[in-house]
Amino acid sequence: RLSLMVRTFEEPARPDALILMDCSPPAASGETALYMRDALCESAASLASVQLSASHIVRIPLSCARPRELAGDHAAHLPLILEGLAGASFDGTERFERVLMLETRRMRRTGSTAILTTHLSSRIADMIVTIRRMGPQVRLIYVHVNELTPEASLLLTRIECADIEVETVMLIDESEAVRA
Question: Which of 40, 51, 62, 84 is 20–30 Å from 23 (CA)?
Fold first, then answer.
């Protein structure tokens, strides 16, 4: 008895991760901006820790005024990455959508990409969807103050519809709550 056999060959997903953190000044001022910076750094540190504990490659290009890249492939590299994140200056002058566009050259060689930002616009959303279409798994971590605006909610829904994992980190600005 003859039967048809089909073989499909798939490349396994690469285990390396690219963490793209928005190093422009956060979308807030004063103490709230400091909390937003902390939330971005803590999220990046958490992602890096998970990857490094499994001995996967992690790359974190920092697009500050003085650009640099943090990288490691083993848990022993975590302290250096944490030190680098703690020293991130958040004084980047490049618009984040341009940073994303410049990093697309790495996408075909990357297993997953995490994008961390306090800014969200239709251009940034388009770049995130473009990155996902290039192949890697993508996660967006959006740090914001108080409730999401209707515009941000719409953009996040559009991003989720493109098979992108979305996580939001909401900070409460108590001075706004007192005024309301």
Answer: 51
Look at residue 29 and give its three-state secondary structure: coil
Going by their DSSP bridges, the two strands 58-62 and 68-72 should be labelled as: antiparallel
Helix/strand/coil (H/E/C) assignment for every residue in 133-178? HCCCEEEEEEEEECCCCHHHHHHHHHHHCCCCEEEEEEECCHHHHH
CA distance 109 to 76: 24
Q: What are phi and psi of 165, to 5 degrees?
A: -75, 130
Q: Are 134 and 110 in contact (CB under 8 A)?
A: no
d(CA 10, CA 165) in angstroms, rounded, equals 23
Amino acid in the structure at residue 90? F
DSSP type of residue 72: E
Q: Are 17 and 110 in contact (CB under 8 A)?
A: yes
pTM for the model? 0.88
- The answer to whether residues 128 and 100 touch, using CB atoms and an 8 Å cutoff, is yes
Q: Please check whether residue 118 is in contact with residue 26, taking contact to mean a CB–CB distance below 8 angstroms.
A: yes
